[in-house]
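Late entry, manganese (II) ion complex.
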Amino acid sequence: MNSSTEEDYLKAIYMLSAQHSSGVSTSAIAERMETKASSVTDMLKKLSEKGFINYVKYQGVTLQQKGSDVAIKVIRKHRLWEVFLCTKLNFTWDEIHEVAEQLEHITSVKLVDSLDQFLGYPKVDPHGDPIPDKNGNFHKIKEVALRDLKVGEKAVLIGVREDSREFLKYLESIKLLLGSKMEVLNKFEFDESVLIKVNGGNEIMLSSLVCKNLSVTYDKNKK
Amino acid sequence: MNSSTEEDYLKAIYMLSAQHSSGVSTSAIAERMETKASSVTDMLKKLSEKGFINYVKYQGVTLQQKGSDVAIKVIRKHRLWEVFLCTKLNFTWDEIHEVAEQLEHITSVKLVDSLDQFLGYPKVDPHGDPIPDKNGNFHKIKEVALRDLKVGEKAVLIGVREDSREFLKYLESIKLLLGSKMEVLNKFEFDESVLIKVNGGNEIMLSSLVCKNLSVTYDKNKK
DNA sequence: ATACATATTTAGGCTTGTCTAAAAATATAT
DNA sequence: ATATATTTTTAGACAAGCCTAAATATGTAT
Ligand SMILES: [Mn+2]
Ligand SMILES: [Mn+2]
Ligand SMILES: [Mn+2]
Ligand SMILES: [Mn+2]
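Prediction complete; structure with ligand written out below:
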């Protein structure tokens, strides 16, 4: 079995691989794990010896199949627990992450699949992220950052790229939730802020940082 | 915060204190924790320094209020999770213990109380053990080991004093469940086995070891 | 190509929790 | 009361994860 620390590293590498499609750097992992680069190097050596990752000094890291499998299982558990916390225990979407961060490490074959069934086999977690099924399969919706839309384009909010409480609370306060429809009215180059119309009503100005962290998909109902 | 190891030690000491009402010995803890006596000594020193226990070399251990509080909180979580696993996820009573052993260490103030509410504030866990409430209060029913009943006395099974899978599976196979009514028909001194009648029907011979580990309460309906 | 800046690894140490083997204290039997 | 057995503690070591400081490799600008 793997320690929960190893699981967290593999999960971090998995997430980072998805973004920067080449090898993942030591410093990127260190930042994500909120630890020091030297600690990361130690762990990379270990994970490499155990056959979870491909690691060559100074060259970054890629996951081996075995490592990817572990990461996906942990992510599955994380997201299922998030659904549980939201739908059954009335947690809000900014409260669930840190608890799920612990629950994802509980080991019991039966537990995960029973939980999945109990929740009705949900396809996405409360942040809009897809939940892998028992076999590790899940479909990515074609998503794009709000920042990359052009003026006049319409889209639906399907996920967030940042889980911090502050960010999630901010979104709630401006009534921007998963499923909200938005239209880009204007983009301002000097500070990269964007003016949007939400659900055909309110107009809101979003900062560069916010736009970067909102995942949307193009709205099919463009009429 | 306390590590999950510290929590497990405090829980073990709490359980053992309940039985042998004097100080708990190093070896008793070692046996319960499935570890070596020297490891226990190390931990006792630490728990003592932190103010959780009263520890004097060679003299055994008692819990301080602070230690008792921690133990009761962990026990509350353990038993609530056991109820969850049984009633919501269809685990059987022999499968729940080892998973609960992990879940009991999840730290979130909100989680425990939400779970309690979600489950409908259960009073006992699937093994018949009482669940402490938010404030750590719980009532012990007057219980006695089946072994201590006299011939002719009637009782109801309310708990088990041993959580091993083997034992629980054995009880299921002979259809002896929580709430079963039993009457002592005969006691055999040479091997301390006991002949009982279950629910007014089957007659079963129980070994000494089994009788020692069944908690019963006298049946009020004696007519 | 060289010099400087940044990223990464190595060296050495610390904490937690575990172990074995040996020493010391306590309990038991005659 | 003394010898023996058992329990408990101490001493010393190890693995996992983490850290700081120093060494080394890589990237960049001129
Ligand atoms: Mn985690
Ligand atoms: Mn999520
Ligand atoms: Mn435990
Ligand atoms: Mn129980």
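The interface with chain B takes residues 85, 88-91, 95, 98-99, 102-103, 106-108, 110-111, 114-115, 118 of chain A (CB under 8 Å). Will revisit in the morning.
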